[in-house]
């Protein structure tokens, strides 16, 4: 391939590496040319930092040879593309320039947001937003407050587990929690709202149960099989189109509040820059109304 001129010095580069590092070149050959494609030149310094230091001399030769050939193929394709796509080149140039501008602007916005954005969202902020936007928090799936335990058939004193589970005494629930090592699985925090679909994943037998019979407030279900006993207590239920509880949507509300703050921060920045530019005669509009 005439367009690619791999220089014989390429091999001298490797042979001249010293014993401490394969890629520390002698002073008189500090940046040799490795290849040329048309008017573009690949120097050793261009790739020195990407060569793995752990390679042997033989593997280094293979690595360099592959890299140079891949580089050359890419340059040749690019050259041919530019030759044959002259009519589209202007559009490409505009796209590239627009991308560069957007990249600079977005990086600057990110820096401003990182430095100046107030990221503290108080409970009062959350409650105020929730109160004003409750209609936007309608559920599209069923939520439940639920607790459950599962224990094997050979557990000692199963009736005591049943009694503790059904008890409303905090002391009994704490005692049950202390016995969790004797349980196959358990979740005793029924103050959290979770999706019913997630509850089914944790309690597989619910998949075969009629939701109309299961999803009842203060409902307790016992299910025994060859492996043991499930006890499930439904504390409360919210159905599709009910308003989501504030505790469930709090993470979403925080995201929305912070996003709104970001938008306002950038809007104020743009307005300030515009006013300052006009004041300093660095921005003028020549459109006649």
List its traits:
single chain; 289 residues; alpha+beta; Chitinase A, domain 3; five-stranded antiparallel β-sheet; 10 helices
Compile the SSE list and pairings:
Layout: H1 9-15, E1 33-37, E2 40-43, H2 44-47, H3 57-84, H4 86-116, H5 123-132, E3 143-152, H6 158-166, H7 170-178, E4 185-187, E5 194-195, H8 196-202, H9 211-214, E6 219-225, E7 228-238, H10 246-279
Antiparallel strand pairs: 1-2, 3-4, 3-5, 3-7, 6-7
Question: Describe it for me?
Answer:
The chain is an alpha+beta fold and 289 residues long. Among the domains are: 76 residues, no CATH class; 99 residues, Chitinase A, domain 3 (Roll), CATH 3.10.50. Helices cover 49% and strands 15% of the residues. The chain is built from ten helices and seven strands. Strands 3, 4, 5, 6 and 7 form a five-stranded antiparallel beta sheet that branches. A two-stranded antiparallel ribbon has the order 1-2. A hairpin with a 2-residue loop joins strand 6 and strand 7. Helix 5 crosses helix 10. It starts with 8 loop residues before the first helix and ends in a 10-residue tail after the last helix. The N terminus is likely disordered.
